[in-house]
Amino acid sequence: MDNSFTDPAFWHRIHFAFTITYHYLFPQLTMGLAWFxxxxxxxxLRTGDEKYNRAARFWAGIFGLxxxxxxxxxxxxxxxxxxxxxxxxxxxxxxxxxxxxxxxMFAFFLESAFIGAFIWGEKRLGPRTHFLxxxxxxxxxxxxxxxxxxxxxxxxxxxxxDRAEWQPRIGGRWGISPQSLALVQYAHNxxxxxxxxxxxxxxxxxxxxxxxxxxxxxxxLSENRNPGRLGSLRTGCISDR
Length: 241
Known about the structure:
The chain is mainly alpha-helical. The chain has one domain (about 30-235). About 80% of the residues lie in helices and about 0% in strands. It is built from eight helices and two strands. It has helices spanning about 10-45, 50-85, 85-120, 120-125, 125-155, 180-210, 215-220, 225-235, and strands at about 160, 165-170. The protein has a two-stranded antiparallel sheet with strand order 1-2. Helix 1 (about 10-45) crosses helix 6, helix 2 packs antiparallel against helix 3 and helix 5 crosses helix 6 (about 180-210). The longest helix has about 40 residues, at about 10-45. The radius of gyration is 20 Å and the shape is elongated. About 30% of the residues are buried.
């Protein structure tokens, strides 16, 4: 009888599972908070009420810290594709390498470039441009999630295999995800991200309310009900495969 504890693949799975689970706590919150920042900046632009700008500044600091920790915890996974899953990387590198590269070159660079402008450039950019930087940050964070989930969908479904060489190849209308698996996963995950963001904002608002800081609590509690309800409803209706 084989002992799983002596099987290298077992420890590779444990190692990668720990890394990716710990890392995923941070991008999930980043994607959830991103559109709250857009909403607050939009409301500030439409109404001129300074409370929305104050809420955006407060959560921008938390967003930036969460983004930085997510980057640090995500870097080891890039190496683990080679150290833990060398055979898989050799087999499917021509396919998943493209989506991972697009995630880094397009989505990550978009988000990381504009997050600095959003956190530190409010006075220099002006209200409209600062609002657009928030949109760019949110778009980059959600594009990042899309490319990663397309990669995951390929790993789960196997994509399209060239039987002549037994190598995966890109094909179909949706690239390496010919079925709707990536779209279902993406819809499910992004709705869950909105729920996560709503819960964190509400939880911090409740914390400030218990401390008697009504002004700060009102910034957290009064502006996140609809996104949280909408995300919860859609997450319940979309089943992940």
